[in-house]
Design goal:
alpha/beta; six-stranded parallel beta sheet; 15 helices; 15% strand; binds uridine-diphosphate-N-acetylglucosamine
Length: 350
Amino acid sequence: MRILSVVGARPQFIKLAAISRASDGRAEHVIVHTGQHYDDLMSDVFFRELRIPQPDVNLAIGSGTHGAQTGAMLAALEPVFEKYAPDWVLVYGDTNSTLAAAIAAVKLHLPVAHLEAGLRSFNRRMPEEHNRVLTDHASDLLLAPTETAMAHLSNEGLAGRSLLVGDVMTDVLYSVRDHIRSDPDGASLGLPLGSYYVATIHRPDNTDDAERLAGIVSALSELDRPVVLFAHPRIRAIAERFGIGLDRDGLRTMPPVPYQELISAVMGSAGVVTDSGGLQKEAFLLRVPTTTIRPETEWTETLDLGWNVLANEPRQIAAAVTRATPKPTTETPYGDGHAAEKTVSALLER
Ligand code: UD1
């Protein structure tokens, strides 16, 4: 059995780490990197740190408008798929790399499996929402992380192709968390526990309008504790263009950090403020209260259980961040940390 994984952006490398480990000795695993993310801190560092084998192919597509980037990937993937003729093409999440790989595979009549299928924000402004819906409908096997995702797939007539496997990010998070706990030198920021917040902001709806970005930055800089902002290249470049200073008052930027450092920083923090999907869920799994700067989230379980609160307007951020500590919970909506094994078994069985 030959499984060919297509990845390209940061969150996909984390999911790939789990699949790469789970397929070891069970299936041949070919890794194709589209090159959507290419900086060392956005890409290579994850392969080193999470001990993922080097990609068999790197298409080096790089950045671009949605159409240009997705189209370039689509064209470049076709000969790669023809060369490797995999039994399964496995695509991850909701980036432009996901959509390009799903379309390229389905056009060549190769079976496509979509990992993290069925997530919906119902916000058609989000590029990720287009990517998820189109990828789900193009795929042969929909590997869903949650019951909620299964329900969305069923509502769209896709129940027959869907399978609940759990969330592969949970697998990686648990193993990294345990490693950090076992290594007292693993703590990263050198700040006292609970004395700071961690923030990440990268979504176009938050970064691309000067007034909105300025409002978010100013809200973060005025919180009751210092805020460490791990700055994605997008926010850094745009803030500079708009003349918005990111290092001011309580706000300090750091470059994007490797996965273990990020998780360690979150574990030591008093809370997270983010617009990242993955980080909302990781913070929940670590039971760190989160405030999400978006009008909605795909990870609705984090809201239902009280560990995540939406604060789309900058003026709502301070109250959300300083809210009372959420009620403890033993719920496990994101699986038991064995989703990658279930995924590989599902591919082997079909
Ligand atoms: C992409 C995904 C998003 C995911 C995010 C994780 C899409 C539509 N979006 O968004 O779902 O949450 O990755 O980080 O696929 N850049 C660099 N170096 C890099 C990569 C990007 O400087 O290695 C800069 C470039 O200016 C680029 C911009 O960041 O234009 C945006 O990169 P892009 O891959 O288009 O989207 P992300 O915002 O990273």
